[in-house]
Model the fold of this input.
Amino acid sequence: MVKFPIPAALAAGLLLALPAEAAAQAAPRVVLGNVFYDGDTQQGISSFLGIPYAKAPVGDLRWKPPVPAQPLPGAHKAVNFGAACIQSDRLQQWLKGIATVFGTADKVVADTIKVSEDCLYLNIWTPAVNGAQAPVMVWIHGGSNLNGSGAESLYDGSELASHGVVVVTVNYRLGILGFMAHPDLVAESPNHSAGNYGLLDQIEALRWVRQNIRAFGGDPKKVTVFGESAGSIDIIHLMASPLARGLFDQAITESGSPMGRMSTVAMAAGFGRQFAKALGVDTAQNQLKAMRAKSAADILAAQNNFQALVLATGPTVDGWVLTDVTARVFERGEQAKVPLMTGTNALEMTTLRGYLPQFPRTISGYRQWAGGTLGAATDSVLRYYPAAADSLVDDAAIRLTTDLFMTCPTRISTRAMKSSGRKTFLYQFTRVIPGGEKLGAYHAAEIGYVFGNKLPWLPQQPADLQLSKAMMGYWTRFAATGDPNGRGAVEWFPYGSGKDYYLELGVPIVARTDLRKDACDAMDPPLKAQWAGK
Done:
């Protein structure tokens, strides 16, 4: 839990005026109608933690769209994070696996944040800028839509906010509670919709930001949504959603692009019936009532053993939140027309191999796996990822799947944005931390550089601090202007401005062209066949 000392209050017109004799001891206060939030300040950055943006999604509100929060009138302390949404400890185990490579697994300490179904909170870090309206950056965390929260220490917004932006981190419903569809949910919905509750939470949080962020020193007309992994994928879905239209002005997506197959609401509802059986309520006369009567702990226990969990918890084409497969929306150019900054890490799959239970170990297995995945494109793709011996299969498969699931789908969404007429900036993060050569530039490695925070178990060199400073500059300038470039920075050319430019974010930072062009050209047909239903 991050705690801040309380020095002098901000004296901005946006904050409640305080008597001079009390100012030295007072916390910063923000007024929203008849509700007052008292936060903390450290080194010119004020924080307001655990602010509710929607009612607790419990009881009859479980598996329903979020209802705007209605805090009680009066003063509320905003110095502690709200609860994280219901989840397992899978994230901590994943971090320990990475730390083991550096020999520091014993230093991985869980963030001391409770877990609850009452979890729809956001957190704000704002610079002490005497009431100036700063650009706003809203973070959507990753974790496969199963884990994570806006309160993770890696996402502390203090350092990033010191670069002149207001940082907001958001919790949203996860797993079965956030994404399950069921025929009875479709039947009770006035929109004949089910699932996508986590996306609806993100939309409600963005709506709250538009309506209230001015009181925290933010510019409601300059909102950038940014996120990583599942958060990145969700942002691309939000760009395709009519319900999110007009709620953000720029987008930054890190390591995740949903350019592939998606479930219809009917398919997803079928997985919901399977979950009802796993929960032991499939024989109930009213399955939905029986599921809502179960405790969150019971649902989590059933979720942890549910074989179809990944299929049951993805965003769904429900006809309301998402009206079509997101890739098709982008292909037609119907997505939100906002500036986009997007990219991936050079070796994503070294830390994601657990998501591939059939990960090949032999040349024959590798060939068989590729054939089942790539179809007629197998030979043209495998030429870029050869393995002459069983001992070389692991490396080849990691490089192939990194491009298949991350690099090349991101290129598809980038090209779709280029044709929309909005500037799009592509990057690849390549920094390999000394001692972590086995991992390479792994999935989520860039986050600490973006926020200016480092996990205590990760080694760090002066070059990492310089790279982090440069990346925070690019990210915050993009939030301010829709263009990451600035004086003294390596120029980042827009994608498709004469060439397919991208910026290599490593040591050093280098402007390059044609990221994995030949390999991605070979992968385009099987990737596009997925959303075409072939």
